[in-house]
Design a protein that fits this description.
This protein has one domain. Helices cover 27% and strands 15% of the residues. The protein has 3 helices and 5 strands.
């Protein structure tokens, strides 16, 4: 038998389970969305690729691990506007996404899997 001891990782998981809205950019932060509770919303702010070429004509917006959202059928994903992202992250756009996420949560949305109780 294994006994589960309280530790920092378990504390992080508990926080994630209580979150309704998860905001992240590309990378490791995306991996946490699979621990969100049913009916949560994740907001992906995206990033500029390739690294080091942000202010050049070669730069483009990428959300990278968006497959994590697609593969998590009990949450919804929202994305920072792709054509606006190369101009930086604007407060009004983030607020708009948070309000949209709040509406989705309050109104409810259909899940592709049966809700856990």
């Amino acid at each position: 038998t294994h006994e589960l001891f309280e530790n920092k990782f378990i504390a992080q998981l508990k926080i994630l389970r209580q979150m309704d809205i998860h905001i992240t950019g590309p990378g490791t932060g995306q991996m946490y969305q699979t621990f969100l509770s049913d009916g949560s919303v994740t907001i992906n702010l995206g990033g500029i690729r390739p690294p080091g070429l942000e202010n050049t004509e070669k730069a483009y917006t990428s959300y990278l691990e968006q497959y994590m959202t697609s593969g998590t059928p009990y949450i919804k994903g929202l994305y920072y506007p792709i054509n606006e992202r190369t101009k930086g992250i604007k407060k009004h756009e983030v607020i708009k996404l948070i309000r949209q996420a709040s509406q989705l949560i309050l109104q409810g949305f259909s899940l592709r899997v049966k809700r856990l109780l």
